[in-house]
Design brief:
The protein is α/β, with parallel strands linked by helices and 222 residues long. It has a six-stranded mixed β-sheet with strand order 2-3-1-4-5-6, sandwiched between helices. α4 runs parallel beside α5. Bound molecules: guanosine-5'-diphosphate (GDP) and magnesium ion. InterPro entries: P-loop_NTPase (IPR027417), Small_GTPase (IPR001806). Keywords: Hydrolase.
Length: 222
């Protein structure tokens, strides 16, 4: 009788994504679209509002991942006084792996809100070495009054990539989240290679050194 070998538990890559932006910029709908592939037309998305911390397992580029979406509304008091963010996050010791900075295409104020609050947010991200950041122009199905060039320029300035999406139409959401996750996975791969270079098996110098050593041995030992 053959013994049944239990399947080893999958070891998913844990990835926490901050979805950060002003109120009503479309953050909840982006998560809802990605998570459940739905667009809730009701004002509230009770399913998400009950949790705020949404965890989902998925496979991206063949790699099992566990994503945690952490939605953060920017309150008015942070816009008036962004140092409030330092006071709240300055001592935190947990950090996201990636972040989406969300504004809406029809509201310059929502982009300015991101710009105003960026310095303390950047300080927090830097402490946690969170470098995978995307500026996301939400509601791209709407009339876009905010200059895309202006937003792209700012994104570059803060070291972020840029994407547009519409949760309503279901366009750009999967791509935006997917590219963030891939960037995190690539960063982890690079860090692993730096931490343990001996694990690299494709060093082109290895066969060359082996030949040199073989030659030397031949000359010495005959
Ligand atoms: N046209 C359009 N409206 C959207 C889209 N996403 C969200 N909204 C609307 O914007 C409002 C706020 O969305 P929500 O996701 O709750 O914003 P949050 O406060 O940032 O989480 C809601 O009334 C949505 O109907 C979108 O992709 N297109
Ligand atoms: Mg919300």
């Amino acid at each position: 009788m053959t013994a049944r070998i239990p399947t080893p538990p999958a070891n998913p890559e844990e990835i926490t994504i901050f979805v950060f932006g002003g109120l009503y910029t479309g953050k909840t709908r982006i998560i809802d679209r990605y998570w459940l592939n739905q667009y809730n037309t009701e004002y509230y998305c009770p399913y998400l509002l009950n949790t705020y911390n949404t965890r989902m397992s998925c496979t991206i580029a063949g790699i099992p991942c566990m994503l945690t979406f952490n939605e953060i509304d920017i309150p008015e008091e942070w816009i008036r006084d962004p140092t409030g963010i330092d006071r709240l996050w300055g001592k935190l010791t947990t950090f996201p792996h990636a972040a989406m900075l969300v504004y809406e295409v029809g509201s310059l104020r929502t982009l300015e809100t991101l710009q105003t609050t960026w310095p303390p947010v950047q300080r927090y991200f830097e402490r946690g070495e969170c470098r995978v950041i995307k500026v996301v122009a939400a509601k791209s199905d709407d009339v876009g009054t905010v200059s895309v060039e202006g937003a792209v320029t700012w994104a570059k300035k803060v070291g972020a990539t840029f994407a547009q999406c519409s949760a309503r139409e279901g366009t750009g959401v999967i791509e935006a989240v997917g590219s963030l996750v891939l960037a995190v996975l690539e960063q982890r791969k690079r860090e692993k290679e730096v931490a343990s270079p001996q694990e690299k098996t494709h060093d082109p110098n290895i066969p060359r050194f082996a030949r040199i050593i073989q030659n030397l041995r031949h000359r010495i030992c005959g």
